[in-house]
Specification:
It contains three helices and six strands, in the order αβαβββββα. The chain has helices at about 5-15, 35-40, 105-115; strands spanning about 20-25, 45-50, 60-65, 70-75, 80-85, 95-100. The strands form two sheets. It has a three-stranded antiparallel beta sheet with strand order 1-3-2, with no helix packed on it. A hairpin with a 3-residue loop joins strand 4 and strand 5. The chain is flat, with a radius of gyration of 15 Å.
Amino acid sequence: MNADTKLLSLRQKIEESGCQVFCVQETKKQNFSLADIRTFAPKRFDVFAFSPSRGASGGILVVWNSKVFLGTPGEINCFSITVNFVSRQSSEAWALTCIYNPCGGPECTEFVIWLKNISFGTMDNKIFLE
């Protein structure tokens, strides 16, 4: 997210997909503003949640169109962001969790401990890990 050509490519992929929610991982940024997001996201995207990077790595950003989804950020930590969504068209509710796994070092060990301690409770939906 530090080069104009990368931002242009990101904008093109977002437009091409027609999505109303997107996630960017490894942002390497400590802060975001709506002005920052406007540099790479179409104007329909007007709400976001983020987890700042730790040093020169990490960082997660979830951005959505508030005319399509009411989004409420849930848990945000250095490894994940959960946003609870409700469709403004159908009132269907769902949650999106974006997870970032550090490649190595102490952060990777912290991630594994965090992941082992996740409690999903009773869920009717499938969990997809990529």
